[in-house]
Amino acid sequence: MPTARLSLDRSQFVAPVRRRIFGSFVEHLGRCVYDGLYEPGHPTTDADGFRGDVLDLVRELGVTTVRYPGGNFVSGYRWEDGVGPKADRPRRLDLAWHSLETNQVGLDEFARWCRLAGCELMLAANLGTRGIEEALDLLEYANHPGGTALSDARVANGTPQPHDVRMWCLGNEMDGPWQIGHLTAAEYGALAARTGAAMKMVDPALELVACGSSGSGMPTFGEWERIVLEQAYDQVDYLSCHAYYQEQDGDLDSFLASSLDMQHVIETVAATADHVKATGRKERSIAISFDEWNVWYVAEHEESGKITDGWPVAPRLLEDAYSVADAVVVGSLLITLLKHSDRVHAASLAQLVNVIAPIMTEPGGPAWRQTTFFPFATTARLAAGDVLRPRVEVGTYPTARHGEAPLVDAVATHDAASGRTAVFLVNRSREAVAVTIGLGDLGPTRLEEALSLHDDDVYAKNTLADPERVGLRPNDSARLADGAVEVTLPPVSWTALALA
Ligand code: AHR
To answer: What CA–CA distance (Å, rounded) separates 370 from 451?
Structure first.
């Protein structure tokens, strides 16, 4: 059996655990909103039409922020369509997803849903078909207390208190030729700078996110970030990163090492932002908002999922059913995000319900947890205090896409106040790996939880017919003795340990 040795101590401090890393994303896309989190007439529905069973799962998932309302959708969206009496709201063509938008859910309802879910709302402004004026109007409607046309409209629409949205995305994936109103880096950088400057005239404490590249495979990756920041550095606080991964051509080994690409994205974007900081003689650093990340079988959807016929309401789009291997990759991507908490201050698992999502629903029927639900919920629940980046001594294996990949990757958190430590590990190997974790000066005396996600069938999934096929199981091999944990990680698995 291969072995690995982890050494942990407080000197490995990276940054405090940033709760916004456990964010997610709700787009008006497919059945994410309609027939997902919103389904009037469902037996669990509240007065607003929101499903109670979905809310319970969102709370259990531990989501901290939700990016809304898109995504590609936002680049054609008129936010005014989604406020006021529902009967008066217009139906519109959604060009991004070739669907019909009924506008029965809009900003005020979604903000209420966020409060029920215990999440912070993060809004995206449309810089595709719209610009500075509409971004300012939306900001006034959402955040101004009252006494102006738009804030009074919000009050009249039944929301006396401002939504007080702190994080704002200045558009979405404006580098992508598929984006409505797609711009060059120079054009977008200028628009983001002007929009950001105007929004900060309303409230200098807003946290603004400029669009980075929509993926590391984009031909302009790196250049886009440099050019945008050279214009908008002083007006923005974050640059976004987006990354989706999938197993391709049956190459599970490369897929399991996807987090090496995420690491490359974070390090490249941080280096580019720091280059602009140095050449522009800036004092402040730009943080990363990794506001779209997940496993997504995008190639399959491109072949089969395009709607060209009609304009359906809430069609079944991008409804990936996730396997154990997918969940192991999601767990390892979370490990990478945490390891880079010094630079990644916010992140959004894309998306939340039905659309490439950890939560699935059936109209009139149940809601269930996908495999990917488990590493997310457990990391969000156990990560606390400070992030520690352990020293990991372990062998590597060759991959076609990412070169040599370590068999095991890990991150830890330590909360000095409670004395609790959590360790999150991924085993990418097809064999079990025996791991020894030296706990240095952390001094735990009790192993409280040892949970692994593993299945002999790495392609096992949870489905409507079998919603609990895959779940976390206690890892009975874990032992704490003499200041070290011994644990055997099953083949292709994700594991969490909680020590007190
Ligand atoms: O999350 C699905 C889509 O992926 C989003 O709408 C877009 O921003 C990205 O390309």
So the answer is: 17
Cα of 272 to ligand 1 centre, how many Å?
23
Instruction: Return all residues near 333 (Cβ < 8 A) that are at least 6 apart.
Output: 245, 258, 259, 262, 293, 294
- Interval 228-258: pLDDT, tens: 999 999 999 999 999 999 999 999 999 999 9
Cβ(34)–Cβ(463) below 8 Å? no
198-231 in b/e form (b: 16+ CB < 10 A) is bbbeeeeebbbbbbbbbbbebeebbebbbbbbbb
The C-alpha atoms of residue 31 and residue 278 are separated, in whole angstroms, by: 45
70 C-beta closer than 6 A to ligand 1: yes
* Residues belonging to the active site: 173, 292
Rounded CA gap, 327 and 318, in Å?
Answer: 17
Q: Could you tell me if the CB of 488 is within 6 A of ligand 1?
A: no
Residue 303 has a pLDDT of 58
Q: Is the CB of 71 under 6 A from ligand 1?
A: yes
The 8-class DSSP code of residue 175 comes to: T
User: Can you list the alpha helix ranges (DSSP code H) found in 43-184?
Assistant: 52-61, 107-117, 132-143, 149-156
Over residues 137-186, the pLDDT tens digits come to: 999 999 999 999 999 999 999 999 999 999 999 999 999 999 999 999 99
SS3 per residue for 384-409: CCEEECCEEEECEEEECCCEEEECEE
User: Which residue's CA is minimally distant from atom 1 of ligand 1?
Assistant: 350
By most ligand atoms within 8 Å of CB, the mutation choice from 33, 72, 174 for ligand 1 is 72
> Which domains, from first to last, does the chain contain?
3-9+388-499 (2.60.40.1180), 18-382 (3.20.20.80)
Strands 13-16, 386-388: pairing kind? antiparallel
Q: DSSP H helical segments within 144-222, as ranges?
A: 149-156, 185-202
Q: Are 206 and 200 in contact (CB under 8 A)?
A: yes
Model-wide pTM > 0.85? yes
Instruction: Say if residues 122 and 169 touch (Cβ distance below 8 Å).
Output: yes
What is the 181 CA–ligand 1 centroid distance (Å)? 15
Residue with tokens 């004092």: 283
DSSP three-state, residue 153: helix
Q: Using alpha carbons, list the distances in angstroms from residue 195 to 130, 184, 331, 392.
A: 11, 16, 36, 44
Ligand 1 centroid vs 227 CA: distance in angstroms?
22
**3-class secondary structure, 59:** helix
Q: E-assigned strands of 26-79? A: 65-68
> Which residue puts its alpha carbon closest to atom 9 of ligand 1?
71
C-alpha 399 – ligand 1 centre gap (Å): 27
